[in-house]
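Homework help board

Subject: predicted structure for assignment chain

Our instructor gave us this sequence and asked us to write out the predicted structure in token form, then describe one feature. I got the tokens but I'm not sure how to describe them. Can anyone check?
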Amino acid sequence: MKKGVFITFEGADGSGKTTQIAKTAEWFKSLGYEVVCTREPGGTPAAEKIRNLVLDANLKIAHQTETLLYLAARADHMAQLIKPSLEAGKIVLCDRFSDSTFVYQGCGRGVPLASLKMLDSFATGALVPALTVLLDGDPEALLARRIKRAVSDKFELEGIAFQQKIRAAFLALAEQEPERIFVVDALQEEAAVTAAILARLSKVF
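My token output:
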């Protein structure tokens, strides 16, 4: 059986990850692949319950607690959905993964990166995405896209300075791993973003 492929999408809320995952899934399906679209935190019943907990802006929890909850959700997600799907030869498209933990909990919350990497490796079995699409854009411009939302999670409420720090951390990761992390200007027209992603994927599939 052909081995599955794991592709992740990263970037700030409002960067268009959900839309581009849907477009990418359509493309893969047109080529005859079985596709699983999922998200983090979430993707399984248990992980979705954890998602509701960690993103609750009204709930104050310690950074260490937040980190461990995210990784508990990831461990369940891996065991129940991602690993079985990859073993079945499917394409798995995931909205956020380990890079978000390294950026938000590491850079944003100050949790030691060495600890994060150790815990993440335990949760994922050291799984590394074949490709990560980083949808990048100026935080203020992306904020303008989000103002129509009725609900914001706690990371969206952190402010522009926090979002700028997060953006810089994502771009630093992309510089460190240019072969894996593909940066796309998220502020282009939606069709242009999709075209850039599919052009990259077409080199492999």
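Reply (TA_rk): Your tokens look well-formed. For the description, you could write something like this. The domain at 5-202 is CATH 3.40.50.300 (Rossmann fold). That's the kind of observation they're looking for.
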